[in-house]
Design a protein that fits this description.
The protein is an alpha+beta fold. 31% of the residues lie in helices and 22% in strands. Helix 4 packs parallel to helix 6 and helix 5 packs across helix 6.
């Protein structure tokens, strides 16, 4: 089993993704969608839970690997005593059926290569029946089937509930493996030409990345983050999943293991800002449209997250047959936080739609009516305690960030009416609400003795989400209360030079045992706040250290454990990569982005 989360690279087809280890093993793949059952689940278990490894016989970790520039096509090379061999991994943009293409190429000498495929449907719990058909090895179990073939033909055999092959490649020779999933009741899917798929994928990705408007420092890192965000997009609907995985632990060996293969409203404004600023208006519009469809309905029923197509029911359950990454159990599917009340999402939705309107995205006829409905509900609900941005399981509280985002909702509604006189709404009522929320937060959410805003009313605890106060425009960056809050968070929540979300040792706040690492998005927010409060050199230094945490192929998980020097949490994490792009645009956008706009204000 691979020892570290950051040992993995990502491939995908904008409907699902796979994780490929440095040893040449695909240890995570859900088919046909991000949120489907995994057919390779070794990531959260062992070899019996499914994997597919292609590597030189007797070899271990690769010598080097890299994405082809500006693409999601991965090249992994091994130098052996026999010679050098390269494996190129990709998932071509699908017509109907998802394909995994693995092309083995001799670079020098003559190298013996082994392929071991162990398909296990339903998160490693179901061993399929294998048969031969029309030049394929076919695996079938219930609704799932997978077809494996090679070009040119390579002999394969079954052993130990796996499919094996051993062959040699000389310099210049290529052998392609293609694994295709489709519903078991349907005929064999159309064959994909693996070599044409490689050429097309490289061309299409480079055409897409060429649209990036950012030309400042760290451009390659920013482009890699945008490619990752594109890979986490479910193309049929425009929804963007929070991560490709479930249950990668926030603390190794701990219980803070959650399913992130869904779409969170909390990401909406920051995602739109990143896409719009980098020049990806089509993707921003698709995300905005997904958002409108997902939140349609009774405003009182607004959820914090939805499925890829806007599904509402995401029940949480455990997979007891999987021991978890590094023994981190339980492994969970679904997410019980879907039923929580998080009032900040109303602010994030209002902010997102305001940003979309000001950026010139085509409006939808029902968009303003939906916003008015959201505001009518929030006017009566913003006083309530909630579970807050971080989805705590220790009971509802009057979280300051939630109140600030209620202010954001009212502020964006007021601004829209002030700028768009053809629209109608409760201007006087929304102004009154905005003033009342602002006054209450400053009175009840601020500790004058410590010169900082607090996590919730009456608390002495801090929360990194308060770093967003100047960004959303609640107070100007030069306000002493903002500067004091930034300094207090830096001092109290600092962790190895980065930032934790909050103090997990605080009694009863999140209702979970154990701790977690530094939260990478919050650490980027600190860089933003330092820049906004006039400390740009410190902000850029912090940004450089954060970029240095990316793995060898530029990917970030949710968190980083400074004590272990390891990435932790689900991976790759959209929130981390969105924050990276936005902070780069904040710090360097003026140096290399034509017309870049960013932030939520």
């Amino acid at each position: 089993m691979n020892a570290r989360i950051e040992d993995y690279a990502l491939i995908g087809d904008e409907q699902t993704t796979a994780l490929v280890g440095k040893d040449g093993s695909i240890d995570w793949l859900c088919l046909p969608r991000f949120d489907s059952g995994a057919c390779f689940a070794r990531l959260l278990g062992d070899e019996d839970h499914g994997y597919w490894r292609i590597a030189p016989k007797g070899a271990d970790t690769c010598t080097r690997r890299a994405y082809r520039p500006d693409t999601l096509v991965l090249d992994t090379e091994w130098e052996t005593a026999e010679g050098t061999v390269r494996v190129t991994d990709l998932m071509p943009q699908r017509d109907r059926a998802p394909d995994v293409v693995r092309i083995v190429e001799g670079v020098s000498g003559r190298v013996t290569v082994r392929s071991t495929l162990r398909l296990r449907f339903d998160y490693g719990s179901v061993v399929p029946w294998m048969r031969r058909s029309d030049g394929h090895r076919v695996a079938v179990a219930g609704p799932d089937s997978a077809w494996l073939r090679t070009e040119p033909h390579v002999d394969m055999w079954g052993q130990d509930f796996g499919t094996h092959a051993e062959f040699a490649v000389a310099e210049g020779e290529r052998i392609a493996f293609v694994l295709t999933w489709h519903p078991s009741h349907e005929p064999r899917p159309a064959l994909v030409d693996p070599y044409q798929a490689l050429s097309t994928s490289v061309r299409d990705w480079r055409r897409w990345t060429s649209r990036c408007r950012y030309e400042g420092p760290y451009r390659d890192t920013v482009v890699r983050s945008l490619v990752t965000l594109k890979a986490l997009t479910y193309a049929p609907t425009g929804g963007i999943v929070a991560a490709a995985t479930t249950s990668l632990p926030e603390e190794l060996g701990g219980v803070r293991n959650w399913d992130y293969r869904y779409c969170w409203l909390r990401d909406s404004t920051l995602t739109l800002g990143a896409l719009l600023s980098a020049g990806y208006h089509k993707e921003a519009e698709a995300w905005r449209d997904w958002l409108l469809r997902a939140v349609a309905g009774d405003p009182a029923d607004l959820q914090i997250m939805y499925g890829l197509a806007g599904e509402r029911r995401l029940p949480e359950w455990e997979l007891p047959w999987l021991p978890g990454f590094a023994g981190s159990a339980p492994v969970r599917v679904g997410n019980g936080a879907v039923d929580q009340l998080q009032l900040d999402v109303y602010g994030e939705v209002m902010d997102s739609l305001s940003l979309a309107r000001s950026a010139g995205l085509p409006t939808k006829p029902h968009m303003w009516a939906l916003q008015c409905a959201l505001m009518r509900f929030l006017q009566s609900a913003w006083h309530q305690p909630d579970e807050g941005l971080w989805e705590v399981r220790g009971g509802r509280r009057q979280f300051v960030h939630s109140k600030v985002m209620a202010w954001v909702a009212a502020d964006r509604a007021v601004r829209t009416l002030e700028q768009r006189h053809e629209l109608k709404g409760d201007l006087a009522g929304w102004r009154a609400m905005r003033d009342e929320v602002h006054r209450e937060v400053c009175e009840k959410g601020y500790d004058p003795g410590r010169r900082t805003f607090t996590q919730y009313y009456g608390s002495r605890e801090l929360d990194a989400s308060l770093l967003l106060i100047p960004r959303v425009g609640f107070l100007p960056p030069d306000d002493p209360r903002v500067i004091g809050t930034v300094d207090a968070i830096r001092a109290d929540l600092g962790h190895g030079g980065f930032v934790r979300r909050y103090d997990t040792d605080a009694v009863g706040v999140d209702g979970m045992p154990g701790g977690e690492g530094a939260f990478l998005a919050c650490s980027f927010w600190l860089a933003d706040a330092l820049h906004m409060t006039g400390r740009t050199d410190e902000a850029r230094e912090l940004f450089g250290r954060l970029v240095s945490l990316t793995n060898d192929v530029g990917l970030l998980a949710e968190e980083y454990d400074p004590g272990l020097g390891r990435q932790v949490g689900n991976y790759p994490q959209a929130f981390s990569h969105i924050a990276l792009v936005n902070t780069a645009l904040t710090l360097f956008g003026g140096e290399g982005t034509a017309g870049a706009g960013h932030g939520a204000g």
